[in-house]
Every structure is written in structure tokens, then in C-alpha cells.
Amino acid sequence: MTFNEKVTMKDLLSEGLYILMQQKPFEKITIKQICDKTGVIRGTFYNHFMDKYEALEYLIHRMFFKGFENQTNPQIIKHIFQTVSDNRDFFKSCYRITGQNGFEDLMSNVFKEIFRNVFSYLDVSGMDSRFTVDFLVDYYANDLLYFLKYWIQHNFEPDVETYYAKIDVLFKNSIKELNIRYMDKSF
Fold first, then answer.
1. 92 near 151, Cβ under 8 Å?
2. pLDDT of residue 75
């Protein structure tokens, strides 16, 4: 099996999970049901994922980064909000996944990856010495997680453009306040 076939199979399995999550709570979905939905055997699932949580993480990652290969682009945050808006029922369902391997932990990891990539394109040489990049990555990832949860809890009001504009102002002003500048790299 080639690498491309594995990616395709991962996509197929995660899509099966996506469809099932439209029908029932994540906690009630079994590996067998994912396999039945996608027409593969359990062994095939376990060749690609350790468990359904890893499949969900792959699915979320794929949804957020699909068509957005340049993960350092700050516009990816707007893209994430648009993706969530386009898949409202799915993400409402995701936020009901709590406890160990909960959705918020998964999202925090994805958002930390995004901010690590964004910070790699920032000039932090003049940054306030009280902060480290790791601290700021955690801070902004958790802020984004809060903003997303708040937006979902408030029934996706206001619209993506308006809500993103508010968040963008908060992020940009706080980054300026820390004396961080975008390096001269094209996005």
C-alpha cells in the first residue's frame, strides 16, 4: 500500500466517523460502526488509527487545514471559524465530548500547532522578556478555544466576518503590545 492510499483510507474512515456523528453521540459510536459505514474491516481501521479519538483529531485537522496548506498564514483563524460555521451541527456535537480525550483538549492541541506555526513567522526579538513563545502559544490557543466555544454557545452569532473582525483586533493589538512584529515574509 502506498502513502497516498493510506491517506485516502484515513480520509474515508474519518468521513465515516463524521457521518455517524450526525446520527448519534460520539460516545455511542463504535469502531465496528465506523468500519461498517466505510465498508472496511476492523484491522484496516487500526492500521490507521489507535482509536476513534485519533480518528476525530485527524478529521478536525483535515477540516481546518484542507485547502490551507500554508499553516503559518494568520488568516487560518478566519478559515477555522468559517469551517465551524459550515459544519455547525458536527461541532456542536463535538463540544459534548468531555472528560479524558475531550474535544476541548483536542482543539487546544490543534490550536497550539497553529500558533506555533504562526509564531514561526513573527519577529520576537524585541518581545517583552516576561513572556516566552511557549507561554504565548498556550495563551492564544486557549483564547481561541474560548472564542470558539463562546460563539458556538451563542448560536454562531454574530456572523463569521463580524466575529472574526473582533477576534482579529484583540489578537493584533495584544501582539503589538508585546512588541512582536511580522517578519518580512509573504503569507
1. no
2. 76
E-strand stretches of the chain = 122-123, 181-182
Determine the Cα–Cα distance for residues 167 and 24; give it in Å rounded to an integer: 32
Average pLDDT on 92-103 reads 88
- Label residue 49 exposed, middle or buried (CB < 10 Å: 0-12, 13-18, 19+): buried
Taking alpha carbons only, the member of 139, 152, 60, 156 closest to residue 106 is 60
Are 115 and 174 a contacting pair, CB within 8 Å? no
Nearest to 86 by CA among 97, 95, 78: 78
pLDDT at position 184 is 46
Phi-psi region of 30 (alpha: psi -120 to 50; beta: other; left: phi over 0): beta
pTM of this prediction? 0.81
Cell readout for 90 is: 458536527
According to DSSP, the residues that pair with 181 across neighbouring strands are: 123
Distance of CA 157 to the CA centre of its chain: 20
For residue 6, the model assigns a pLDDT of 44
Residue whose cell numbers read 492541541: 109
Give the separation between CA 34 and CA 15, rounded to whole angstroms: 9
